[in-house]
Amino acid sequence: MPNVVVVGAQWGDEGKGKIVDLLTQDADVVVRFQGGNNAGHTLVVGGEKTVLHLIPAGILHPGKFCVIGNGVVADPSVLVMEIERLKAKGAFQDDGQLVVSLDAHVIMPWHKAIDVAREQAAGEGKIGTTGRGIGPTYEDKVARRGLRVRDLLDEARLARKVKERCPAAREELKRLGATSDLDEAAIVKQYAEYGRRIARYATDVSLWLHRALRAGKSLLFEGAQGTMLDVDHGTYPFVTSSNTVAGNAVVGCGLGPKAVDYVLGISKAYSTRVGGGPYPTELKDEVGERLRKIGNEFGATTGRPRRTGWLDALALRYAARVNGLDALALTKLDVLTGFEKIRIAVGYDIGGKVLDEMPSDPELLERAKAVYEDLPGWSETLDHLRTWDDLPAKARAYVKRVEELVGELERTLRAQGARILASAPVLVPPRADPRDVPSVRDDMAAHLRLFRSGGA
Ligand code: IMO
Ligand code: MG
Q: How many CB atoms lie within 10 A of CB 139?
């Protein structure tokens, strides 16, 4: 398989994990390059539901390698807990399967405390973060005062850095009106212990990946969050603190841009968002409630009910542009079964002026009213669907229309001579295991073959 980047094309929770699981069968190495345990991926291990937040699910497959790159912010307590849980279930027998960057920044107790305290202090204007300390850890990274995995491996160095950092963290917590019980000695002891547990996995990831590539291994880059949550390209400031777009895949693990062969975006057949921020197609009525209920739209990380709405073609087209998508996979199409009419936003009405591309000013987005195109719904269940032709005609028409609306961009790029290889959405019926659905595998394989043969 060529090296594929999988990214969310919306606000996260698109079902990336499902597609990554599917593609993992044909890849050798799964690489996380940004985010941390703000991500959540529910899977079933030995008949039991498990949620992984940091380690890619590929760890469940013997012989596959999982890499946590330098661009990830890793909470050592979560990493150790996930390792132990997996081992307790009899999975992850071979320690060689997990590779953690020495340069990944670590989430420390003060980062989590500051994240939570800041949100509490912000009241109405809060971002609605996951409270995992993601933002404060990335802040320290950019401010050049962060701690990295390598610092956990040397207790003296760890003690020095904790001592350096704690006074300012205490001050900040006090300013935010939070009680701070940062016990430096206890933190050093605990985190040095995490360091000892992580040491066997920690390495120079750039070099490790470089050698893997030279040995002919194929890489699967697993994005977390989604394009609209990207710190540069999302609905700033209602975003996460990392670059979630495909371009960051190589930066977050120490490779060059040519390591990526193929970029696959994932979108639900409708939309959801967790936390605050603009969301033009949000439904605050019984239709939105119905999507939440049928789609089981509750956060895997925080359990919060997700905001729900119709699909936004402007957001998708934007995602296609900023990620350079080669293809878009559409998930959870079956959730739309039974809706009499299905809407797709094709424009934004902002003060009487209708835009057909995403405005670059998120404050405009706040005022945008979605302009919809309506398509007829279908009533047939998609549960046992196996091929594209099995789909009800109206469901096919819906997917085709999405393809057209997103494909506009593809045509533009093609005219400019860009190598856009396939724009057809890959169809994934959500409640079926995608591995059981030959059409999905075949579609995906066809796209990838298309790439391999250099054709477009
Ligand atoms: P996956 O990988 C959905 C959202 C939070 C909040 C904003 C900032 O499962 O798609 P943060 O804790 O990152 O500082 O929060 O980003 N958010 C997600 N929403 N899915 C995710 O991950 C998310 N990770 C962060 O709700 O609005
Ligand atoms: Mg999530």
A: 14
> Is residue 186 within a helix (H) or strand (E), and if so which, with residue range?
helix 184-198
Whole-number Å distance between alpha carbons of 8 and 267: 7
How far is residue 343 CA from its own chain's centroid?
25
Our CA angle for 239, 244, 249, nearest 5°, is 160
> What are the b/e assignments for 322-331, b being 16+ CB within 10 Å?
bbbbbbbbbb
CB atoms near residue 386 (< 10 Å): 14
Chain centroid offset of residue 118 CA: 24
- Dmax of the chain from CA atoms? 66
Alpha-carbon distances of 306 from 5, 8, 332, rounded to whole Å: 25, 16, 15
User: pLDDT digit string (tens) for 83-111?
Assistant: 999 999 899 999 999 999 999 999 999 99
Question: Is there a cis peptide before residue 76, judged by omega within 30 degrees of 0?
Answer: no
**Token couple for 9:** 């094309």
240 in ligand 1 pocket by Cβ < 6 Å?
yes
Say whether 13 is catalytic.
yes
Cα angle 51, 278, 431; round to 5:
35
Query: What is the pLDDT at residue 124?
Result: 87
427 C-alpha vs ligand 2 centroid, how far in Å?
21
Which of 240, 301, 306 has most ligand 1 atoms within 8 Å of its beta carbon, as the pocket-test mutant? 240
Is the N-terminal amide bond of 237 cis, ω within 30° of 0? yes
CA distance 235 to 182: 34
Number of Cβ within a 10 Å radius of residue 350? 17
134 C-alpha to center of ligand 1: Å? 10
- Residue with token string 């890793």: 74
What three-state secondary structure class fits 307? strand
Query: Nearest bound ligand to CA 299?
Result: 2
Q: What is the pTM of this model?
A: 0.92
**For residue 452, is pLDDT > 70?**
no
The CA-based dihedral angle spanning residues 282, 287, 224, 382, taken in that order and rounded to the nearest 10 degrees: -140
Instruction: Give tens-digit pLDDT for 311-353.
Output: 999 999 999 999 988 778 888 888 999 999 999 999 999 999 9
Query: Looking at 102-197, which runs of residues are DSSP E strands?
Result: 105-106
**Whole-angstrom Cα distance, residue 294 to residue 334?**
9
Distance CA 451, CA 446 (A): 9
Decide if 41 is catalytic: yes
Residue with tokens 């994005």: 223
Give alpha helix (H) positions in 63-148: 76-88, 109-122, 134-142
